[in-house]
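The freezer alarm interrupted the setup, so I double-checked each line after restarting. Inputs confirmed:
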Amino acid sequence: MILQAMDLKKYYGEGEAQVKALDGVSLSVYRGEFVSIVGTSGSGKSTLLHMLGGLDNPTSGRIIIDDKDISELKGDALCIFRRRKIGFVFQSFNLVPSLKVYDNIILPLELDGCKVDKDYIGSVVASLGIAGKLDTYPGKLSGGQQQRVAIARALATKPAILLADEPTGNLDSKTSQDVLGLLKTTGQKFKQTIVMITHDEEIAQMADRIVRIEDGRIV
Amino acid sequence: MLNVNNKKAIRKISLSGITTNIKKYVILIFAVALTSLLFTALFTIGGSTVKEMQLSTMRQVGGSSHAGLKYLTQKEYDMVKDDPAIKDISYRITVGDVTNKELNKLRTEVNYSEDENAKGGFCYPEEGSMPKKENEIVTSDLVLQKLGVPVEVGSKVKLSINIGGQEITDDFIVSGYYTGDVINASQMLLVSKEFQEKYAPIKTTILPETAYNDYVGWIMADFNFGNSFGLEKKIDGLIKRTGIREDVDYGINWAYVGGSFDAETMVLVGIMLFTIFLAGYLIIYNIFYINVISDIREYGLLKTIGTTTKQLKKVVKKRARIVSVIGIPLGILPGIFVGMCLLPMISNQMNSANVGKGQVHVNILTILVSAAFTYATVIFSANRPCKKAGSVSPIEALRTRENEDAGRKSKKGRVVVLSLSLALVILNSVFSMAKGFSMDKYIEQMIVSDYSVQNATLDNPGIASTDKILDGVTTDFISELKERPEVQDVGNVYIFDDYHLMDDESWKKIQERILSNERFLSEINEMYTGVNGIPTADEYLDMRNSEKELDGATYGISKMIFDKLEVVKTADGSDKLDWDKFNSGNYVLTTCCKDYDDDICIPYFEPGEVIQVGSRDEKYVTYDTAYGMSGEEFEIPNYDNEPTKEYEVYAVVKIPYAIRFQSFGEFQCDYILPEDEFLNLNGDRNPMRTLVDVKDDQEVEFEKWIDNYTSSINPDMKYNSKNTVLEEYKSFSDMLKVVGFTLSFILGIIGLLNFANTMISSIIVRARELAVLEAVGMTGKQQKIKLMKEGLRYFVWTSLFSIVVSILLNITAIKAFMNGMAMFSWQFTITPVLICLPIIGVLVALIPLLVYARMCRVSVVDRLRVE
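Predicted 3D structure, all chains:
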C-alpha cells in the first residue's frame, strides 16, 4: 500500500453557505497501480487530488503516503516531501517558460540539490520520445510534446506516486491517446504508481482501476 | 470617410480599465503626483525668485514705474502728462539732501512727492500720513534709527538739509514713516508742499539753459505705459510726439528689462527641469508599460472584437489623461509647500532686498506651467506604451503572455536601474559640491585676517567706484588701535587707483605681451565694434599706443600684507619673498593681466625688468577739465608731470580679493611698493584698509571695541570680521545641502517606487509560474531567495551604473564647474553613493519579500487555477 486516504473531508464556508467539496472520502492505492478517478465537474475530484498531493489541507481526515502521514506536515516540510515523493502532471502543462526543456525536467532535482541520474533521465526522455527537444524552450513545442515534458519532469525524482490532473484536458483525442499510452507504458517500465483524474470515460478506461466520485463521495 | 462618434465607447473602456484595476493605477497616480510636486516646487521657487529679484531691483532703483523723465520744469511736465500712451503719471520735486552726520552712511534725499509717486517709490508712510505742514516729514525707519529718534509718529527730529549748497537746520515732526531698505541707493525724506514751495520752488528755466544743475526744484516724473515691452522705443516715441526737448534725461526701470538671469542660472534651471522630467519619464513610462503589458489580454480581446489600432491608442492616451487629471492636482499643493519651505534658504543667498524676502509668489501661471510640464511628461511617457497597446495582435495577446514578459525583462530592468541611479548620481553631485564648498578657500578669498577695517563706502557694491573713499582709515583710528592690548598683528594697505604712464621700453613689452595676445585681441574685437559711437578695435589700439597708458593702481603694503600675497613668478623660481630685500626701496611687485578673471596669468613685466613708477604727490598734480553726461563740468587729476622713480621688478604676484580694491579697470596693471617707500614716493596718505589679527582668546573684547568705534566714534568706518563671513558661508552651504538633499530624496523615492512597482508586477504576472514551481516542490525559502536574487540583479546594475556615472560626472562636469568658481575646491568623492547603496540594497532585497508574502495569501491551488 503506497497511498492511503482516510475519511477525508474538505468544507468551505459555514452554515447555510457551507460547501462540502469532499465529504468522507477513503481511498487506498497499491504500489505500481494505475488508478483513475472519474467524476463530473464539481464532483470534488480535483480537490481530492490536491489533498493527495499535499497542495491543500483537508478539514479533517488523514493521508498516508509511503508510510508518512502528510497531514502532519506543514509549509516547507510539506513542500520538500512533495518534491521528493510526488510527481505532478497538470492539465495546462505548467512548464516554466524561461527554462529549456531539459532544465524543466531536472528542476525538481535541482531544487533538492540532488545529483542528476543522467542514465535514468535519459531513458525516461527516450521512452517519452522527446530526446530531440531537450534544448528548446517549452513555447516552441506542441501541446502533446509539452505534456510529455511535464510527465518527464514528474518522473525525474522517481516519486512514490504520480498525480495527473486531467493530463489530456488540453489535447485533441489523437494526441490524448498517444500521451496516455506513453504515461501508462512509462509507468509500467519504471514501476510507477499513478493516480489520474479525468472526466473522460474513454481515457479512464486505460487505467487498472476506476474510482468514481460524485458530490464529494466515492460511489 | 465616415466620422464615427466613438468617444463615448472609448471613454467607457478607458474608465472601466482604471476602476477595475484601481490598485495598479494608484501607483501611477502617485508617480504623476510626485512629478507634479517636483515641477511645482521648482516653478514656485523659480517664479518667486524672479519676482523677488524684480521687486528688489525696483527697490534698489526706488520705484515700480516703467520709466521716468528727469529734471523737468512745470511747462515741460504739462507737455507730457496727458500723452495717450501714458497710463498713469505722478511726480516728485527735488529739494536737497540731509547732511546730518549720523546719516553719512545712509544717503537721504529730500523731496516733495505726490501720494501716488510715494506709493510707486516705496516711501508712502505705512504709519501716519503724508506731510502737510511745513515742519512735517515722512522718512524711513532706517533714517529715524540712525538719527536716534524713536520710530513713531510725532517724534521730533533736528535736521540739516542741503538745498543747492545752502544749508538750513530746523526741527521737524515725523508725520509718518515707512519701512526702509538698505539696498536702496538712497532713503527718502518727504517734505510738505509748503516746505518745497518755500525753499525749492519749481524751476522755470529748462535744464540746458541753467548754468549748472543744483538738483533743486526739478520735477521728476514717473509713469507707466500700457505694458512693459519695448520701453526704450516707447520713450523715444513719447519724446518725439510731445515735442519735449530731445536731450531730456530719462530713465528706464531695469526691473522690467529682461535678462535678469545669467547664463549659469539658466543652465542650472535647465538641468533641474531635465532631471525632473527624466525622473518622471522613467517612472511613468515604466508603470504605464507594465500596465499595458499586464492588460495586453484586454487589448487583444478588444482587437478581436473589432477595436482598431487607433482606437486602442486612444484608450491608452485617455487613461494617461485621466491619471493626469487626478495626479497633477494632488501634487500641486504639496509642491507649493515644498517650494515654500525651501524658498527662504535660497532667497537668503541673493543680494536682494531685505523686505519681503522669502515670500512665496504663487500665481495661476506657476500652477499652469507646472501642470503643463507634468502633463507633457505623462503624455510623452505614455507614447511608447500606447504604440505597444496599439500593435498588439489579438491571437498573440491571448496566447503568449509569459513569453512576452521574459523577453522584456532587460528593457524594464534598464528603466529601473536608470531611475534608481538618477537619485544617487544627483545626490553624489550635490554632496561633492557641498563638500567642496571650501570654508578655507571661501574665507581666504573674503577675508585674510581676523578683522578688516575700511571706509564704509569701500566694499559697498551699491556705491560707484569713483565715489569710494580710498584713504578712509584715519590716523586717529590707527593710533588708538596701537593702544589695544588684544591686537596681535596689524597691516596697512595704501592705494592710488588711476593709471600708469609707461616709458617707451616698457610700452613695447606691453605691446608684445598684452596688446598682441590673441585672447586679449578677441576680447577687444568683441567690445570695440565701431557702432553706436564706440571706437573700432583698431582705433582703440591706436589710442592706447599714442597714450602709452594702462589703468591700474599703486599699492603700498606692510609686512603682514606682504606675507599674504600669492607669489606667481620670481627670478630664481622660488615662491618665497624676502621682506627686507623688498623693503630696501629698490623693488616693486607687479601683477598679471586680468588676474581676477581666471587662472590664466599673463604678467605685465618679468622679474628682473626695470620699470618707472610715477609719484602721486599732490605737489605736482594738475587738473584737466571734463564734461559729464548733463554737460556739467568737473575736474580730473592729471599726473603726467609727476616725477617717476625706477624700480626693479622683484616678483609677479596676485593680491587676495580681501586685500585689494574690489573694483577693476580694463587692464588693472597694479604695482606694489613697501609701505614706507609708497609714502616716500607719494607723500602722506591714509591707508585704504587696515587688517588686524587679534589674540585668540580676546576676540570678544576687541569686537566690542571696534563695533563701538565704527558706530559711535567714527561712523564713516566699517569693519568685517571672520565671524560674519563664517555665518555667510554656513547659510550658503546649508542651502546647497537642503535643496540638493530634498531633490535627491524625492528622486530616491521615485526610484524605489519604480523598483517596487516593477517587482510587484513581475511577481504578480508570474504568480502562476511561481505556484507551479511550488507544486513541483520549490519551497517558500527557495522562492524567496529566487526573488531576492532578481531584485539584487537590479541592485548590482544600479551600483555599477551609479558608481561609474557618478565618478565620470565628478571628474568632468562637476570638477570643471567647481574649478571655475572661486569658493569651491574640487575633491573627488563617491562616499554618498557608497553609503546609500547598502540602504538601497536592503530595500531592494526586502521589497520582493513583502510582495511575495502578500501573494502567498492566495493559496497555491487558487493560483494554479488562474489561467
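Quick read of the result. Chain B touches chain A at residues 400, 402-403, 406, 768-769, 772-782, 859-861, 864, 867 (CB under 8 Å).
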